[in-house]
Design brief:
It contains twelve helices and six strands. It is of the alpha/beta class. A six-stranded mixed β-sheet has the order 3-2-1-4-5-6, sandwiched between helices.
């Protein structure tokens, strides 16, 4: 049995840019939500998708914004897309899917918590997201990530091949390289190649000798890298804290609650009418009793 964990925020963005605009009868833009419903129903048609949880960023800001002023906010988010976030959560709940709406935490924290909590109870946990920070959750081939758009699966070997470091070192990697999607600037001069070389050898920030003359790997610009790291000691540790996913989100469900038993017919029909998307009425392949 597999447990699938869906990054609802990413999927809503993907639907927004991948599906044509659509206006509901009351004049609201709902193209992203209808696209999200379609892609989720397509996912649920797959025979191995029996247990599913979906996490959304109900609020774009989180506790990380209190730690670092430069952390990502909703600035620049299209109003037409932001207005669809509450409707997206309600739509997937109408499909009979467990939805976690995050306010203090982020959606990725909920996914990380669920992966840790239930990884010993299933054959495999599949985190459906291309986000780099979620690769820190990967464990062997028991917890993996899968990019639905590119159809790329990353197990532990895949993470090492892609980033040059094991999953547990991904927060350290992002602290050095930076993550523009989350507003983490990284350490000057440290790029993907140099970070993979140095961190691939020493694994964690604490393991990197602060005197580059002690490094037993060859990396271009070692003196510049060492100097930059020494000059940004406090910042890089903060960046790692920001990139480290929380695994203590208070999720109240049991694993059995995540088993998908079908779409509740009447609420789904009412939602289709609200969206003006009558073509979705016959899309579900199973109805709940």
């Amino acid at each position: 049995m597999r447990l699938h964990l869906l990054d609802g925020t990413y999927e809503l963005f993907r639907a927004h840019f991948g599906y044509p605009p659509r206006t509901s009868p009351d004049g609201m833009e709902v193209g992203a939500v209808t696209g999200l419903i379609e892609t989720t129903l397509r996912l649920l048609r797959q025979p191995d998708v029996t247990h599913l949880g979906v996490a959304f960023d109900t609020e774009i800001t989180s506790f990380r914004n209190d730690l670092f002023d430069g952390y990502k906010t909703g600035e620049g988010l299209e109003p037409e897309l932001w207005a669809q976030f509450p409707l997206a959560e309600r739509a997937l709940a109408t499909l009979g899917v467990v939805v976690w709406g995050m306010v203090e935490f982020e959606a990725d924290d909920a996914l990380a918590t669920a992966a840790l909590r239930w990884s010993d109870d299933v054959d495999q946990v599949v985190i459906l997201s291309p986000d780099k920070d979620l690769t820190q959750c990967v464990v062997g081939d028991r917890v993996v990530t899968f990019d639905r758009r590119r159809e790329v699966l990353l197990d532990e070997g895949g993470v090492i091949e892609r980033f040059g470091v094991p999953p547990e070192a991904i927060p350290d990697y992002l602290a050095l390289v930076g993550d523009s999607a989350d507003g983490i600037p990284g350490v000057p001069s440290w790029g993907a190649k140099s970070t993979a070389t140095v961190l691939g050898r020493y694994h964690r920030l604490e393991g990197i000798p602060r005197d580059e003359a002690e490094w037993d790997v060859t990396v271009r610009g070692a003196a510049r890298l060492g100097e930059s790291l020494r000059a940004h000691e406090d910042e890089v540790r903060l960046y790692r804290d920001l990139a480290t996913l929380r695994r203590d989100v208070p999720l109240t469900e049991e694993l059995d609650d995540l088993e998908w038993s079908g779409v509740p017919r009447q609420p789904f029909m009412e939602l289709c009418d609200e969206l003006g998307a009558t073509g979705l009425r016959d899309r579900p392949h199973r109805w709940a009793d």
